Amino acid sequence: MVKTRIISLTDTFTFNLLSDIIKIRQDITSKLWFTYRKNFVPIGGDDGSVSDKGWGCMLRCGQMVLGQALLFLHLGREWLWEPETKDTTYLRILRKFEDSRQAPFSIHQIALTGVSEGKAVGQWFGPNTVAQVLKKLIKYDEWSSITIHVALDNTIVVNDIKELCHIKDQSTKLLRINWKSLLLIVPLRLGLSEINPIYVTGLKKCFQFKQSLGVIGGKPNLALYFIGCIGNEVVYLDPHTTQRAGSVNNKETEDEIEVDLSYHCKYASRMNILNMDPSVAVCFLCKTEAEFNDLCQLIKDNLIISEKQPLFEITLEKPKQWMTTLDTGIEAAEASVLGMPEDKRIDSDSEFEIL
């Protein structure tokens, strides 16, 4: 008898690995796949980088999680991409990530904003750094209608997030008029050189929450975007393949159609969860306040009450003993596992491999 294997993906769908293989492939292909690119406009001037090959993998993973958030927010979690797709909202989202100086979430914007986080152009990012950069960039794109909160010190501060997401009435200056959709990123360090098995159950549960956007992380020397899990394996999209830069525009020419195809991967890869690098960032999308409240309850029930060693904590107010605010502390979350320093990493130029 063949054993049923269940795959949980970031769109909250749960599939039977044997009977739903076509649906699984369509779901994976519908996600935006950002990879190394070459021959784009130089970053930071005429002498700047024209490719992010060898250093941009974590930046591309950051693009993938933000791109997925925008697809879910503006098109819905059940929306699926087809090669013939010319949906104007989809194309508008995709153009925001193209490799140009003008695109708000391009490799150019992310790399140059990273300088303010202490990372020179061409230097490898950690999960927390890319989260902090995206948090800054999202403020300049009103159409996206989303805000980013990076929860440091392994703690979600509920009232800080609600104050951030509640839109003020400009006439009365009162809150609670509306809720701005939230991309919540929680950087964590789950071990020294490898993941402590005590965190595995909690990490797998995160993929099952309906608010899940997956996990930014990788394996040693390689940044990856984890989008789901099958048993003790994690499913991921790999940015380590180099494609030519180009623009999708309105997807009217053969070249533009080819560019669109290059943003969708036919097959995801997978690996044992214990082979993940312990430095990760867990991501969630809350379109409404009710979804955020539900996420908090899910975390309490599944990650705090039921776990001996919770992945992270929830508190209503910011702990008084904190020496810094949630808006400071570059790489603070990555550098502390429970107080231990982060290992030095070097990005790799490994080939993309379908498993």
TrEMBL record:
Pfam families: Peptidase_C54. It comes from the Eukaryota. It is found in: Cytoplasm. GO terms for cellular component: cytoplasm. It catalyses: [protein]-C-terminal L-amino acid-glycyl-phosphatidylethanolamide + H2O = [protein]-C-terminal L-amino acid-glycine + a 1,2-diacyl-sn-glycero-3-phosphoethanolamine. InterPro entries: Papain-like_cys_pep_sf (IPR038765), Peptidase_C54 (IPR005078), Peptidase_C54_cat (IPR046792). Its main location: cytoplasm. Keywords: Autophagy, Cytoplasm, Hydrolase, Protease, Protein transport, Thiol protease, Transport. The keyword Transport applies. Cysteine protease that plays a key role in autophagy by mediating both proteolytic activation and delipidation of ATG8 family proteins. This is Cysteine protease.
